Amino acid sequence: MEERKNKIFGLLGKNIEYSFSRGYFTKKFDKLGLENHKYVNFDLENISEFPALVKARGKNLIGMNVTIPFKQEVIQYLDKLDKTAKKIGAVNTIKFTKRGNLKGYNSDIVGFENSLIPLINDGHKRALILGTGGASKAIAFALKKNGIKFKFVSRNPRKKKEISYNDLTEKVLHKYQIIINSTPVGTSPNINKYPDIPYQFLTKNHLLYDLIYNPEVTAFLAKGRDKGADIKNGFEMLQLQAEESWNIWNNS
């Protein structure tokens, strides 16, 4: 099979000019001397534009990362999912095979699990996941894998494991001591915004994890820190999932 000379990688998402991925992989390619590798942003208004994008880029496409809001919507255009992505129901990595097939993976679970688990102590038995989008699915998968019970917090709860923001009483926050923000609320430039939870009930026993990395300390994390909680942003998760994506594109 003929080797593809120019190798294009990219990030699929909406309003992603801010994104970490392009800078990360551009530096990686420079460091490795991969002059024929390029990482670009594929900023789409609607996922229906995806097939035309793939067709236009042709055989040079090697891989994509996928971010908000397309981690679930893109699945309909893929030929195959690996078993973990299938269980999670969300994709953040796509590999384009030499035969022209598109295979979906989820490297978010690797990034999240390896950045969160070292922070867990014996008091961290239960977690609240703020948001129900594609990123939340990988978080739930990782928590379940590690024996941590969880509930989703949604503005419009519909399923058994979902509760509303209005349900977050002092009793609930005492019971659920890991709180994970998987929503985009608080992302730059909207740095003064934060999820609507009762921060007054947070304590030093809580762990707040925000998938957002820009700003480094979101308002959500700052409010937790003010109450003595341990905090962690999503930067290490991004680095770890990026490296896992790189392994998928080159080895899977």
Task: Walk me through what this model shows.
With 252 residues, the chain is of the alpha/beta class. The chain has eight helices and twelve strands. The chain has helices spanning 20-32, 50-57, 83-88, 108-116, 134-145, 170-175, 219-226, 235-251, and strands spanning 7-13, 37-43, 61-66, 80-81, 93-96, 102-105, 126-130, 149-154, 162-164, 178-181, 207-210, 230-232. The strands form two sheets. Strands 2-1-3-5-6-4 form a six-stranded mixed β-sheet, with helices on both faces. A six-stranded parallel β-sheet has the order 9-8-7-10-11-12, with helices on both faces. The radius of gyration is 19 Å and the shape is elongated.
H/E series, N to C? EHEHEEHEEHEHEEHEEHEH
Q: Give the CA-based shape.
A: elongated
Question: pLDDT below 50 for ≥5 consecutive residues: which ranges?
Answer: none
| CATH class term of the largest domain | Alpha Beta
Structural class: alpha/beta
Widest sheet: strand ordering: 2-1-3-5-6-4
The CATH level-2 architecture of the largest domain is identified as 3-Layer(aba) Sandwich
Which fold name corresponds to the CATH topology of the largest domain? Rossmann fold
Q: What is the tally of beta strands?
A: 12
Structural Rg = 19 Å
- The percentage helix is 25-40%
The number of distinct helices, counting runs of at least 4 residues, comes to 8
How is the biggest beta sheet arranged? 6 strands, mixed
Domain count, please report it. Answer: 2
